[in-house]
Amino acid sequence: MADVTIKKMDNGPLQVKGEVRLEDGKGNTYDVKDTFFLCRCGHSANKPFCDGAHKAKGFEDDSTAK
Asked: N or C: which end of the chain has fewer CB within 10 A?
């Protein structure tokens, strides 16, 4: 697998860049592109993917790595 970067976006989703395989809990595979966004707020209607619901819900997390 190629290099993969997962970036925690301030007050938003996880951005995944690179060639990855994303599976659900049963081992079924999601179709993903080389860049996609995973929901962190829990309000997306398209879980596990982000649909921008965090903006309307006021999700906040701008913590940084230590």
From this structure: C
